């Protein structure tokens, strides 16, 4: 028996109902909105959570940060480099340890304070478009289950 050469109409319809496609499409649209709000500050939506994490506490280890953002270390570093070049963050060897930590500089913290109103505006706008808390719960649950399976 030989495999079919073309998918059926029903199979093509199934592809259009793909969860991955729907999430990626939605993510691109949402990212474009945040990027537009952050552009005047020279930031991208992918960089803001990194800068925010670096400004929290005394520093954040790179490996756990990559994990929490769902990125591999290479992708994280690609997003960190422009922040380092702009002197918004610095990467240092943790004192007495073998791992690197990311820390926001005073300039990075000041930028976060200036960015906040623009971010808050787009955040409120996006949240208003998802009024049903059930969707928020579903997205949170999906994220947690995917993270759990990824680490298993």
Sequence-ordered SSE layout with sheet pairings:
Blueprint: H1 9-16, H2 19-38, H3 48-55, E1 60-61, H4 62-69, H5 73-85, E2 89-93, E3 100-104, H6 106-128, H7 133-151
Antiparallel strand pairs: 1-3, 2-3
Helix pairs in contact: 2-6
Key features of this structure:
mainly alpha; three-stranded antiparallel beta sheet; 152 residues
Describe the structure.
The protein is mainly alpha-helical and 152 residues long. The protein has one domain (19-151): Winged helix-like DNA-binding domain superfamily/Winged helix DNA-binding domain (Arc Repressor Mutant, subunit A, Orthogonal Bundle), CATH 1.10.10.10. 65% of the residues lie in helices and 8% in strands. Strands 1-3-2 form a three-stranded antiparallel beta sheet. Strand 2 (89-93) and strand 3 (100-104) form a beta hairpin. Helix 2 packs across helix 6 (106-128). The longest helix is centred in the last third of the chain and has 23 residues, at 106-128.
Question: Describe the biggest sheet?
Answer: 3 strands, antiparallel
Radius of gyration: 19 Å
Low-confidence stretches: none
As a percent range, the share of strand residues is: 5-15%
Q: What's the SSE pattern?
A: HHHEHHEEHH
Alpha plus pi helix count: 7
CATH H-level homologous superfamily name: Winged helix-like DNA-binding domain superfamily/Winged helix DNA-binding domain
CATH architecture: Orthogonal Bundle
- Total number of beta strands: 3
Structural class per helix/strand content? mainly alpha
Mean pLDDT: 86
* CATH class call: Mainly Alpha
Shape: globular
Terminal Cα span: 37 Å
Oligomer: single chain
As for the number of domains, it is 1
Do you know the CATH topology? Arc Repressor Mutant, subunit A
